[in-house]
Amino acid sequence: MSKELTLSIIKPDATSRNITGQVNSIIEKSGLKIIAQKRIKLSKETAGKFYEVHRERPFFQDLVSFMVSGPVIVQVLQGENAVALYRKVMGATNPQEAEVGTIRKEFALSIEANSVHGSDSIENAKKEISFFFSETEILED
Ligand code: CMP
């Protein structure tokens, strides 16, 4: 039962509605600890690189445009089974399929404006965390 790290992004639809504290409250109530976070504005290039795996998908251009439409908050979350736990806490990608009590059920506006991103595997979590954070910015418990 090792402590894992995962990457979270609070997306522009949530920063623009000033609900990042409410999102963080759900994260903390789940037992996950926010051990690093910063508010940044993504460039098209950075957003495209981050979502490289989706480049050939039909929604790629819209996704990049949305992610640069306002500030985002990038976060490192720590906890037992953090990757799987945070995916449960976020809820399904499509908010219409998300369970009650999840971040996306509570706050997401659409499949695109779905309030949060979370890493989908331990391997990707490592890659995504180092994409946004240097080691000195992460203070593990
Ligand atoms: P996220 O977890 O950030 O990973 C990729 C994102 O693409 C996803 O959340 C959605 O916000 C966005 N997206 C937009 N349209 C779709 C779609 N049809 N299927 C999956 N993801 C989509």
Q: Largest sheet at a glance?
A: 4 strands, antiparallel
Mean pLDDT score, rounded?
97
User: In what range is the share of β-strand residues?
Assistant: 15-25%
**DSSP summary: helix tally:** 7
Strand adjacency order, main sheet: 2-3-1-4
Cα-based radius of gyration, to the nearest Å: 14 Å
The backbone outline, from C-alpha atoms, is globular
Q: Helicity range of the residues?
A: 25-40%
Q: What structural class do you assign from the helix and strand content?
A: alpha+beta
Distance between the termini: 15 Å
Catalogue the unreliable spans: none
Describe the protein's topology.
Elements: E1 3-10, H1 12-16, H2 20-29, E2 33-40, H3 44-50, H4 60-67, E3 72-80, H5 82-90, H6 103-107, E4 116-118, H7 122-132
Antiparallel strand pairs: 1-3, 1-4, 2-3
Bound molecules: adenosine-3',5'-cyclic-monophosphate.
In short:
By secondary structure, the protein is α+β, with helices and mostly antiparallel strands. The chain has helices spanning 12-16, 20-29, 44-50, 60-67, 82-90, 103-107, 122-132; strands at residues 3-10, 33-40, 72-80, 116-118.
